[in-house]
């Protein structure tokens, strides 16, 4: 049976692959909710007018916010290797399960061990979340057909942004109604429920699923070239680390994380100290940019797939176009934000533009990992995420060092300028050196044979 025949008989309606995508989406939503809940929670936890609060200096708060990444960077590369060998399901279960338990314990840890114990909890959360992106990339590479990768891949990865938005919105109201500990209790409980459900219905691949139809399994396997069963390949570490296109992916990921995590960790403080917004409204306003990112992400994915379907651009050109929209757009908006008056409406509008336009990266560098070497997508994401999250660790500390006075708009201008410059520099390198051509080292088998080592010509994708 030819590829065209299988694609022509693509199963109608929703299938198990869509259920897996939804569960991956929710996993990332919950992971980010538990990752950023302290960005809002720390505002309530240090409110001198609140109950059971803490007298933590700005430097201590910055240390707490960055401590998640001390653990997060450690298991990125091992996470990719483990996901490739054991499948993504078990690692995602560990990630969400452990994070849910620790999230439930944070209020008690803060009361008993002050900020030092909170940092310890965040390090452990970071360690277990080191599995999330390598595992998701491995799962997407196994579950999502080539013709649907733009839109379904975007659905998965936008979960993190929606989790950020929901947490910003909910945290303020929850803290206002029940106190800041409830922020952690609610998120941890929902995470525990997801873990139980995914144990039952989750699967590392179509081959392992108990619920998928043979028709849908054949469609996915044929689209991804997996007919004949799963082959195990030897990870070509030297080829990966000496590949300039892959190095450009590392740089693009670092640039994305610098801008993104500067905004995630600092927007609540900017809203509170510069614009004078109280915590309940702070959460809603801080969430608006991430809701915009979610809203714009889905059509981005469909447009990316449509462009490839119509063969208007090559895969490489399409990825670079969308990544450039997602990097240069926010850079320009951040520069504009630096010179706006301290007005809530104007500042919020520009922040919505900054984060919303950044949706382009979901159809950009993230998918290039899978384009270049689908057999090593997990390992590659682990490597780029390792370096990118060293940047994530640095950004709150850098902001804390720059901001001598959090209420001074000129101090924030420096923070925004630095982020804009990083966006521009890193994406320019990506545009020059990146490629979506499948690499010759993608299919080096365990025994050292390399039967398909020639680079295949890049083709635009058709789902017809």
TrEMBL record:
CDD domains: MFS_SLC17 (cd17318)
Entry keyword annotation includes Transmembrane helix: yes
Membrane topology term: Multi-pass membrane protein
This protein's record includes keyword Transmembrane: yes
Compartments where located: Membrane
Renumbered residue ranges of the record's region Disordered: 441-464
Domain Major facilitator superfamily (MFS) profile: 19-438
Pfam families the UniProt entry points to: MFS_1
Residues passing through the membrane, by range: 21-43, 63-83, 90-110, 182-201, 239-264, 284-308, 320-340, 346-368, 380-403, 415-434
This protein's UniProt keywords: Membrane, Transmembrane, Transmembrane helix
PROSITE patterns per record: MFS
Principal location: membrane
Basic and acidic residues bias locations: 451-464
Domain of life from the UniProt record: Eukaryota
Protein name as catalogued: Inorganic phosphate cotransporter isoform X1
Gene: LOC113514060
